[in-house]
Amino acid sequence: MEDHKKEGRYGRIYKQLSDLVVKSNNAQARMATIVAVLHHKMDYFFWTGYYLIEDGEMTVNSYQGPVACQILAKNKGVCWAAFNRQETVVVEDVHTFPDHIACDGRSNSEIVVPLKNKSGEIIGVLDVDSSQKAAFSEVDARWLEKILELIWIE
Ligand code: SME
What is the pTM (predicted TM-score) of this model? Predict the structure, then answer.
């Protein structure tokens, strides 16, 4: 999808999510709502969900899409890279990413955005896969980072 089209779509999704999430103060409910809306409104999202750090491991949390790996081997793959670098990672072709963890062979590109708690500490990541190559751009990074902030909005 072209960046200008993404801008319009993310803008509408952000408005819809802003209205939806305030109906609950439960972070888990908000997280689930965010991935459900994103996954069904963005047709290039093939898998959309969270991995959270639990006892030093990255464990899957709420998601939409095909069944995925429950635990990601430590310090391997894109999710761990984003967590360790503490920044969003965009991968145009996952097959060229060292140690990429393929939960589903149909994924070709990926974006991983660090997920912060209310105090600003990184507790995991939002991971989105696409079956298209080079599906994600700086526009996805900026909007997904902004959407994750809705989890903690008062
Ligand atoms: N590809 C990810 C693993 C999670 S699945 O894509 C859902 C990674 O390399 O960390």
Answer: 0.97
State if residue 111 touches ligand 1 by the CB under 6 angstroms criterion. Answer: no
Through-space distance between the first and last CA atoms of the chain, rounded to whole angstroms? 32
Is the Cβ atom of 77 under 6 angstroms away from ligand 1?
A: yes
Say whether pLDDT at 154 is over 90.
Answer: no
Domain enclosing residue 68, as ranges: 3-152
Q: Whose CA is nearest to atom 5 of ligand 1?
A: 103
Q: What is the CATH number of the domain that holds 146?
A: 3.30.450.40
